[in-house]
Amino acid sequence: MFKSSSALFAATATLAPSLAAAFSFTFGSTPTQCQNATINIVGDDGVEPYNILILAYGHPPGGNEVRKIISHDWTGKSTSVEIAFPSNSQFVAVVSDSKNVGSGGTSVSVNVAASDDTACLPTSVTPAFYLFLGDGSSLEPPIDQCTDIRLAWSANASAPVSLIGVVPGGNSFNIDTSQGTKSSDGTQIGFNWTPDVPQFTDILLVAGDASGRGSGGSTGIINIGGGPKDCLTGTYPTSTPGTPAGGVYATNASGGSTGSSGGGGSNTGAIIGGVIGALVFVIIVLSGLLFYFWRRRRLAKRNHIKEKPDLADDPAAANHMITDNGDPHHQLPAGYEPEPFIVPPSVTSASRPQTPSSLTGTHAGVPPTAWTRRLSNNSSSAPRQSTDGGDSSSYAAFSDRKQFNGPAPLRPVNIIQHDDGGAVSPQGQDEPETVELPPAYGNIRPNAGASSSTPAPPPPA
């Protein structure tokens, strides 16, 4: 059973004219592990026989390199070749005709789809000879544009030896090996090569001999570094803009294409990323606004001072006073200060015990409204008793009483207090009954200090 897609890719893509490509090719089906892939020739400018060179690209999926370079020759407009590469690995294909290397174009990296068939996969790969770069101090030394580098191969290679520079998705080219010479120890044959390849170009070098192209193996991906530009004249190898050869872009492990020969790839990831970024931005903005209003409201509450209204007077205009303990306080306006109620003293007559006596509110030396006024804070005198004769001072004057600058004086009020008569003796049967009536208050004379226009108080109801 195959895990790859069963869809076939139509041979509709053609390679734009380039420096070396006189025709192009396409894959008619998805390259799948241990399955045959169809190769179709597009155009009539190629000269048979054709050759396709399939070489490993990138790191092997299992860590060990067991991918063997495939070189296949055929005649006609189409052929099929078995893809002996493991799934999830990549390769690059180069198609040539009998005239020029890479004349049919070079594909981009193609991913191999998975399948259950593993019979074609080799367990080890041993090239017929080896390719060496540089002075041997490193396995793959850097290659810079227009800077000489030594290319060499094993002396046991069967002549003629070929070297091919493969540019994925661009123009592959042949490197002349006719000027190679043997090393002093006779184990290598090589020469100095001046790469006329521009900076930043990816390139792979493939070695072959009489047994076929790729028999000497290939290098990994080498990115050309910077250097002099004097060799970059006329035409030189580079990546080809537009649709590369092969017609099918790299595929995923399940066989689905990751691109399209006629348009761009899917933008689903970019769309999702944009939506997520927009949501994060909106959340950040809303959080900032909420924090701003919350902090503003908190500061407003902190700076707000609740004041109780003064219904009596303007507190700024109140007079400040100092109490006995040194604490300041405000003096209330006239008419609003509290006044204590003073109970008048009980006065009894020595000659008439157990009988009610009257105590008038008008006494010598005491103003009529003395009992209705408040005492000052510094008043310490107390009222004194007097007899009912009325000609001696009954009360002490309030020496330190604060003058009251309030309303007009009130009219005099008479205060009558009745004394307890004691226990009631039982009356005999023959003793006449006595009925006591309250006074009629009809003979009340106006006080001498009161105004003549002040009417007498009405009798109690």
Summarize model confidence as the mean pLDDT.
73
Outline type: rod-shaped
Helix/strand order: EEEEEEEEEEEEEEEEHEE
Number of helix segments? 1
Residues in helix, %: under 10%
CATH topology of the domain at 131-223: Immunoglobulin-like
Biggest pleated sheet: 5 strands, antiparallel
DSSP strand content: 15-25%
Q: Report how far apart the termini are.
A: 126 Å
Tell me the total number of β-strands.
Answer: 18
Structural class: mainly beta
CATH class categorisation of the domain at 131-223: Mainly Beta
Q: Runs with pLDDT <50, length 5+?
A: 1-20, 250-266, 348-366, 368-404
CATH architecture of the domain at 131-223: Sandwich
**What is the C-alpha radius of gyration, as a whole number of Å?**
63 Å
Describe this structure in words.
This protein is mainly beta and about 450 residues long. The chain has a domain at about 130-225: Sandwich (Immunoglobulin-like). About 10% of the residues lie in helices and about 20% in strands. It contains one helix and 18 strands. It has one helix at about 270-305, and strands spanning about 25, 35-40, 50-55, 70-75, 80, 90-95, 105, 110, 130-135, 150-155, 160-165, 175, 180, 190-195, 200-210, 220-225, 320, 330. The strands form five sheets. Strands 3, 4, 6, 7 and 8 form a five-stranded antiparallel beta sheet that branches. The model is unreliable at about 1-20, about 250-265, about 350-365 and about 370-405 (pLDDT under 50).
